[in-house]
Amino acid sequence: MGEKVKPAVETVVESRPEGAGLRGTNQSGMRAHNERLVLSLVRRHGALAKSDIARMTGLSAQTVSVIMRALEQDGLLARGEPIRGRVGQPSVPMSLAAEGAFFFGLKVGRRSADLVLIDFLGRIRAARRRTYRYPTPDAVVAFVAEAAPALTAQLDADLRDRITGMGVAIPFQLWNWVSIIGAPQAEMDAWRHRDIAAELAALVDLPVFVQNDATSACGAELIFGTGERPKDFLYFYFGTFIGGGLVMNGQLFLGRSGNAAATGTMQVPGPDGRMRRLLDVASLSVLAGMMEAAGEPSDHIWQQHLDWKVSEAVLDRWIEAAARGLAHAALNAAALVEIEAVLIDGWMPEAIRSRMVRRTEAVLLDLDLAGIHPPAIRAGSVGADARALGAAAIPLSQRYLIDQNAPAREA
Prior knowledge:
Blueprint: H1 31-45, H2 50-57, H3 61-73, E1 77-79, E2 94-96, E3 102-108, E4 112-118, E5 124-131, H4 137-152, E6 163-170, H5 178-181, H6 185-188, H7 190-193, H8 196-204, E7 208-212, H9 213-224, E8 233-238, E9 243-248, E10 251-253, E11 267-269, E12 275-277, H10 279-282, H11 284-293, H12 299-303, H13 312-337, E13 341-346, H14 350-366, E14 376-379, H15 386-400
Parallel strand pairs: 3-6, 6-7, 8-13, 13-14
Antiparallel strand pairs: 1-2, 3-4, 4-5, 8-9, 9-10, 11-12
């Protein structure tokens, strides 16, 4: 993922879709806040009836009824089948409407760019991919100019105006990684002076938000992840370089300047016992280098993530080194903030990810854990598309989810 330095344009995604701690207001002029509150709860918990919302938020039944009716009329909530058999009127669960809104998510990687179009549930409706030797601003803008209209055309005509924004997940300071990705310094320096958000906004005529790619992947796990999601977790994403994110109390934690959880730069023991950056032992670029040194072609691992052709000898050495690095990073994080879990995801086959999770857990439990409650080690639930999905989650969060740190605003 690379060093996380604040870009020219950055959007902070902070959503807390938990019932606890989210209280509404019945005062007039607060409709936008309360609507986001309701949508956040429904996204987190699934279909909810008005009585459920009232109980979770402290809003009056009348206020909840008005809010949910407005959201239904706007196409953001869908009415379920009435649940009968209770005293009084039947309960009607309301869930998110898949076609209520759509969002573009652009992942700019060191080897490829992906543009996805997702619906309100976070499902990918259409996608395009382009691989390259190294990324340049011109190549990325040209890719979006071609791909965005093609993705838009796959929606019915009456739904196209429901595309409400674009998020961009990109490694920060790309110009500092020329020696590793083999790019000309002059071409990569172009990133220093280009306002990529402004260029893309003019191109697609939508609001555009930029965020670090690993942070975006973590945001995808927070917003779209399935299964039991801990309220506090450290997240690792395996890309060309490994990176990560941190969720605290159900919110994506970015720190004072947006650079929190730059896990790739954490110092961990390398295979020779010397301290190294985590990205120098646990990145896909490290695996690719090992493959090439063993006479095995590695180009295919950048092109697809489902089926890699890598010898067991090389794969075992890489997993061992990466898992040891992850375990030490997890231990240090747990000592500092008492995280509940570590989630591991990335651009890799599920079988390899599972092996990485198991080995990381084994190494962690073999370390000196005196005074530390070790976090659970789990696989992420979003998968290889986490960065692009996380990018699309930025405009979704900005417009439709609650920001617990922002004051309520009028509709």
